[in-house]
Design brief:
Helix content: 10-25%
CATH topology of one domain: Double Stranded RNA Binding Domain
CATH architecture of one domain: 2-Layer Sandwich
CATH class of one domain: Alpha Beta
Number of strands: 17
Distance between the termini: 29 Å
Strand order of the largest sheet: 6-7-8-9-10-11-12-13-14-15-16-17
Radius of gyration: 28 Å
Largest sheet: 12 strands, antiparallel
Amino acid sequence: MRLLYRWLGLLVVSAGVIAAPAMAQSDASRPNVFLDCNSRNCNSQYFRTEIDWVNWVNAREVADVHVIMTSERTGAGGQRYQLDLIGVDDQAGYEDTQAFQTLPTDTDREALDGITHTLGIGLASFANQAGFRGLVQLMGPDPESSNVGTRRTVSAAEVDDPWNLWVFRVNGSGNLDAESTRSNTRVNGSINASRVTPTWKMNFFGNMNLNRVEIDLEDGTFTDTRTDWGFNPLVVYTVAEKWSVGLQGEVARRVRFNQSFRAELTPAVEYSVFPYTEATRRSFTFFYKVGPAYRDYIEPTIFGETEETRWEQSLSVNLAQRQEWGDAGVRITGSHYLHDTDRYNLNMRGDIDYRIVRGVSVRAEANVAWVDDQIYLPADEATDEEALLSLQQRASSFNYGIELGFSIQFGSIFNNVVNNRFGGGGGGGFGRRF
């Protein structure tokens, strides 16, 4: 057996030595590309496989061009992808933007093909301007193909749209998670109707959630069944380039928050320091709303109320950036009731992911909130079971959370090889049990 291990070890070492020269190295005749993706379909392996005429690198410091890929949802339910190409070092000063828009009916493969095509065009344009020659061959579409010129997004003015830009979605799901001493059944459903134009944004969302829990305890079986539902309308009107006004509403049942029925209609206004067209890369907004909220409680509250209508106002400030050095965001929200300004809620949340030097980055997330607006809490405290399962909101004066992390990467930064063998193996054996 020991001899077998020696032979296996020698075989592994030999394979590593033989394979090493075959690994793709940096080719000075090709541009070095660093992909920085924060959107859907960040399939770097697919991009490496389809665009094999560049050097994909893992560190921005050795790149010729830094590609920042972001996305945002379109009114029809698809995604609009934006690719910002930024020159690095000798190519500093180069900037280009490419965009691609998927349809809501596109498959993942169709979306990836479109993104890859757009990314390839952007990289080819950069390579041409930066002096890299002979990397790609330009080929036009087959003129006999039935797909020539058929794929593009059209405006409402160009077609007779029987839906008038309205989009509807219906979702549903069910889940059963059980073992011999417990079971949890969940049924969820939602319906959404939306219409988005450059001037108006309308969205109407309704949902229903059924949750049933059964747990065997020493003194019997604990059972909890509850149904929550809600309907949320939103109407937004574009006043000017950086100003928007709108109405937010809610009609809902929230058992965890001791509310058998609640209804509110809140006017709101938002100001954006930067143009909304730059939202995927940077945003700085101020959002203010004020309005009444009616609540019918399941149990009398700590103030002896069974129902009440209270006015509330809130202000949110949101700053987000995604640049070459990384990304960061800060959000501050403050609110209070108008009938008693001492009943307030102040929440601050921030995150940052910063590249320090080549291959070294740090990240941090933190949030803290001071809470004194829980006027809906029931007079009777939550039972031990409800507390352990988070079935009922409990009194709290504050909450906070923090997460710190770092990433260090070293070794080859020019390896463009993609190998999908044992992709689902996870390094573990068969039939592993926990």
